[in-house]
Write a structure and sequence with these properties.
Layout: H1 9-34, H2 41-48, H3 52-56, H4 62-85, H5 91-108, H6 131-149, H7 158-178, H8 184-197
Helix pairs in contact: 1-2, 1-4, 4-5, 4-6, 5-7, 5-8, 6-7, 7-8
């Protein structure tokens, strides 16, 4: 008879969740201390206390770990965005509030592991789109479409508008996190003006 001990299904699932969370927590710390470029899978594994084989049961590379971190952040930000949408009202205040909420969320992540990375290191980006990131995009696009239907926003291509809004917000956020001190309000004001009014809406745009 086999001497292998099999864990109950519920216990196995709980262990998987705990291991995956341990890897993500360790990765946040390692990326924050060493920087994304310098960090290695071995550094992450050492911080978890797990065996190397256990790590590779979940992720094949640090790129996959980073994508999982991005997905985890998107999953936790989605309810914040949905709550802001529930307030209703004009599109412009919603855009400003949503961007500010996103910037504050990013800045608060583990006292922002992004902000603690080595000075000058560019923020890596996830290639492709995870399901949770797609859900956030869909939420933004849906908000834009409802604003158009209700006459609260410009009639235009909602797909492009959502992509442009998210792109501007993400790039400005990356730069914001490289600055000291991190000024979420100023960055949010800039991004909102760029999204809502383009170059003509920025401070000093009328000066030549």
């Amino acid at each position: 008879m086999s001497q292998v001990a099999y864990l109950p299904a519920g216990k196995r699932e709980q262990t998987k969740v705990q291991n995956r969370q341990a890897i993500l927590d360790a990765a946040r710390e390692v990326f924050g201390e060493l920087g994304y470029e310098a960090a290695t899978v071995r550094d992450i594994i050492r911080r978890t206390g797990l065996a190397a084989g256990t790590f590779y049961n979940y992720y094949r590379s640090k790129e996959e770990v980073f994508a999982a971190l991005a997905d985890d952040g998107a999953r936790r930000f989605a309810p914040i965005l949905k709550n802001l949408r529930g307030k209703g009202g004009p599109i412009e205040p919603f855009v400003r509030e949503a961007i500010l909420a996103y910037f504050e969320f990013m800045a608060d992540e583990h006292v922002s592991w992004l902000a603690r990375r080595p000075a000058g290191e560019m923020q890596p980006h996830v290639h492709g789109e995870t399901p949770e990131m797609a859900a956030v995009f869909a939420e933004v696009k849906d908000a834009i479409e409802h604003a158009i239907i209700e006459g609260r926003g410009p009639v235009s291509d909602s797909d492009y508008m959502a992509a442009a809004a998210i792109g501007v917000a993400r790039e400005v956020c990356d730069r914001m996190l490289m600055r000291r001190p991190i000024d979420t309000a100023a960055a949010a004001d800039f991004a909102a003006e760029m999204i809502l009014h383009g170059l003509k809406g920025l401070p000093g745009a009328g000066q030549h």
